[in-house]
């Protein structure tokens, strides 16, 4: 049965029963009683590392938790807020304007206006090289789109933000959307086709929403998502993680119409996420009516403060809002410090020992250890080496002896 307690007990059992072939004479010495076990993990594994230092400090002596959202929450509208904050102001302004425009048409527009909007968006999404549109794209198929499907299409430019950040994921789309032919601007090539870069206010403000919608559709149609490196996912792991967030963690990344800078449709709602969970796991006695976040937050949530742990976060990580370094409204707004705490003693004054990487996103430091050419990760390589040094200095190489 997959839940927080079982996921924590598994590595505890592993550590106390680790007997690798060929090292039989040393099996007893590998036990956590005699050899310090160090946990390294990013994202969900980072959460487990933090929990382990609270639940089983005698088994895992120290931990490095990267981008660990230790606070479980059902309502997590702040996820895409981080992406918006990292965007150029003109692109953010237009993305927000388009989101509100589409939501308004879906809620208050005539049937003809809704059909026109859906067909235009569906055509842009499905168009191929050179603007070729598949035969299955027509008024009938477009009209069958649900409001939730429309909302998911609006999020397409944000698909890879979590790991690649603004520069490598959203910026190419923004560059296309914010650059358009404007016949009122002086030409530079004598051909009447010079491209005008929208001001920081965006196209919707400097021109109108119709022009912004047209530019947005152009960006959707022309962006080459295949050029973004992606290793794919494991369906089994995806299914397991879906069960975990549906049952305990929540993390429903809804659109928040009360956020004046929202770039996610209100039709991606809490009810939408809960319905998906119920449909995925239609068991009579399966899921609770809403995720049981208390099963996770009993280990501290935002306030988690064990000893011998380093937290690292990316400035624009969409999961930072639920991490110990969160600065969101309602969070404890704890201060990060690189002052090395004493061994087996939590950082003083509720501070968080660790590093906040400027401009980085999700697990950028640990991903720097991978063989990758991603620009966001490359910029974190130096920071990652600093993080490793801090970890070894504070937890292993200092004059610290393990408590017996």
How would you characterize the overall build of this protein?
The chain is α/β, with parallel strands linked by helices. It folds into 2 domains: 4-71 and 300-396, no CATH class; 73-292, no CATH class. 42% of the residues lie in helices and 10% in strands. The protein is built from 16 helices and 9 strands. It has helices spanning 4-16, 44-55, 79-86, 89-108, 111-126, 139-143, 147-154, 161-177, 203-206, 209-222, 235-249, 270-280, 294-297, 364-367, 375-378, 381-396; strands spanning 37-42, 60-66, 73-75, 179-181, 195-197, 250-252, 309-314, 336-337, 352-357. The strands form 3 sheets. Strands 1-2-7-9-8 form a 5-stranded parallel sheet. The chain has a two-stranded parallel ribbon with strand order 3-6. Helix 2 (44-55) links the parallel strand 1 and strand 2. Helix 4 packs across helix 10 and helix 5 packs parallel to helix 10 (209-222).
Helix-strand blueprint:
Blueprint: H1 4-16, E1 37-42, H2 44-55, E2 60-66, E3 73-75, H3 79-86, H4 89-108, H5 111-126, H6 139-143, H7 147-154, H8 161-177, E4 179-181, E5 195-197, H9 203-206, H10 209-222, H11 235-249, E6 250-252, H12 270-280, H13 294-297, E7 309-314, E8 336-337, E9 352-357, H14 364-367, H15 375-378, H16 381-396
Parallel strand pairs: 1-2, 2-7, 3-6, 7-9, 8-9
Antiparallel strand pairs: 4-5
Helix pairs in contact: 4-10, 5-10, 8-10
Distance between the termini: 33 Å
Structural class of the helix and strand makeup?
Answer: alpha/beta
> Into which percent range does the helicity of residues fall?
40-55%
Provide mean pLDDT, rounded.
87
Main beta-sheet strand count, sense and barrel state: 5 strands, parallel
**How large is the count of helical segments?**
16
